[in-house]
Amino acid sequence: MAFLETAKQRYTTKKYNSTEKISAEKIDELKEILRLSPSSINSQPWKFFFIPASETKTRLADASYWNAEKINEASHLVVFSALNDVQRFEEQINSTLPEGSINYYHRFLKPHGEEHIQSWMKQQVYLSLGFFLAACASNDIDATPMEGIENDRYDEILGLEQHHTLFAVAIGYRNEEDANQPSITAKSRLDMADIIQAM
User: Fold this and answer.
1) Is residue 187 situated within a structural domain?
2) If you placed Cys at 175, which of 15, 46, 119, 147 could pair as Cys (CB 3.0 to 4.6 Å)?
3) What is the layout of strands, in order, in the sheet containing 76-83?
4) For residues 102 and 113, what is the distance between their CA atoms, to the nearest angstrom?
């Protein structure tokens, strides 16, 4: 399927088929796709958690406000987190990145302080989210990105210390009765002329 058609069919799933699970092979493929996500200077300041049906998934659902039902119905929950320890991040890039990338960090990022660096690291994780949603759509896997979660409780449940939860994505296969799918409710987007300008 051409990617334009994939984009037309992708949507934020509101109701999942709780009996249909994503195969282990497809989950492995999604993990590798996330590993290959782009980030500025190849910084990779992230950690991802794939959680199938389990006590942990249920506990995370309980820490997800109005998103709990979607998480419980979905095949898997994927949690996206960012490094929150700047010193640990600097150790990582010093051991993995070429000199030019490290010099970029010290020249253009570090002088702005830790708060700026942490914000920049979070932005890299959001890049991976777009990559991941596109990958799911191209593999006929439905997805629901969610910021409506209790981030600190997620950290506690997952035992995070050097990372902080930013958001989660429920993945699985849509319930045929999900009214949010494009075949039932047409997508609503701004007109091309309102958002894209040729220069």
Assistant:
1) no
2) 15
3) 46-52, 76-83, 163-172, 142-146
4) 16
Cα gap 27→132, rounded to integer Å: 12
- Indicate whether 140 belongs to any domain: yes
Query: In Å, what is the CA distance from 8 to each residue of 11, 12, 183, 191?
Result: 8, 12, 10, 15
Taking only Cα atoms into account, the Rg of the chain, rounded to an integer number of angstroms, comes to: 18
Count of structural domains, the chain: 1
**Quick one: which of 7, 8, 4, 6 has its CA closest to 183?**
8
Domain contains 199: no
- Say if residue 44 is exposed, middle or buried (CB neighbours under 10 Å; 0-12, 13-18, 19+): buried
Residue 100 lies in a domain: yes
Range of the domain at 144: 3-176
Tens of each residue's pLDDT in the chain, 199 residues? 599 999 999 999 999 999 999 999 999 999 999 999 999 999 999 999 999 999 999 999 999 999 999 999 999 999 999 999 999 999 999 999 999 999 999 999 999 999 999 999 999 999 999 999 999 999 999 999 999 999 999 999 999 999 999 999 999 999 999 999 999 999 999 999 999 999 9
